[in-house]
Amino acid sequence: LLKQKANSSNGPLSTGQTHTKKKHPVKEGNNQEVPAVSGNGNVVKIKSTNKMDGGCAKDSPPSAKPKPKRVAMDKHVNGTKSDGKDGKEKKKKGKILKEKDDIKHKRRKAEEHEEQQPKEADIWFDDVDPNDIEAAIGPEAAKIARRNLGLETGPSKKSVEQVLVKEKAFEGLTRAVAMDCEMVGVGPKGEDSIVARVSIVNQFGKCIYDKYVKPTEEVTDYRTAVSGIRPENIKTGEDFKTVQKEVADILNGRILVGHALRNDLKVLFLDHPQKKIRDTQKYKPFRQRVKNGRPSLKLLCERLLNVQVQTSEHCSIQDAQAAMRLYTLEKKKWEAAVRNKSNKKNAK
């Protein structure tokens, strides 16, 4: 028995016998040589491929790392790098607040703008040139001035005619009429003038007479660039004597308005009572406003009516309308001045 014990403790194990061997801990992450027993009892060293103690490579495959998923989930929950509900709500609230601030800012700007604008009740004037008002106070005040004078055209300024002619007004003869003539040149150098067209409008700017006149002499200068007259216009025109009589009948007993009327009456060989003539070129208040002793019709319209006339070829209808509009602008004061002048003469 003692012999058998000694053999069993020192020699290799025989077949059918079991032997318990003390296990050594294996460090994780390093390949370890694990002792094993072969069939003939010899000890064989085998490399372990598992990182876990006593495990098998096939039974325990390497597991995936869970940390990145948890980090991503945490970020998603916190709403720092995702478009979750919390993030969307914050963006929506921020947008609404910004819009409210913009609306308040616009309202405040609009109120400040209104405070800076001149109030119509605060602006008063009497026979003041709107352009002078514009230079002193600003364009808004001048705009109100023109509107009160009936001269404001604003956005509806589509044509000169809308300024010079009263829409839907009476189209017949009125107490005052305005006349203008276009002339052509005769004589060796075309320096002398004869009438080629006569136009008359009523107090509202409505045309009541417009005729071309046959020349009584050979025309040497049609002055088309200014007069707008061409050979075909006067070739088929009315006879001068007929036009002269028709015009005289219209003017009889009426106030005659025009610009530099002396020239128009001269070519028609007509006369008219001085007390019934209203010449826009000679009206003193007009001359004072434009600071010109003999202002042109174009200048008066630009400064007092804020319209452009005679920009190219002249039109006798438009020129008559412009003169009438200037007259109606000052009609009350103009007529009062004529009465006062007449009364002073009678008093003497």
TrEMBL record:
One of its GO terms (biological process) is DNA catabolic process. Its main location: nucleus. This is RNA exonuclease 4. PANTHER family: RNA EXONUCLEASE 4, RNA EXONUCLEASE REXO1 / RECO3 FAMILY MEMBER-RELATED. Residues 1-18 have a biased composition (Polar residues). Belongs to the REXO4 family. It is found in: Nucleus. The keyword Nuclease applies. Pfam families: RNase_T. Residues 71-89, 96-122 have a biased composition (Basic and acidic residues). The lineage of its organism: Eukaryota, Metazoa, Chordata, Craniata, Vertebrata. The keyword Transit peptide does not apply. It comes from the Eukaryota.
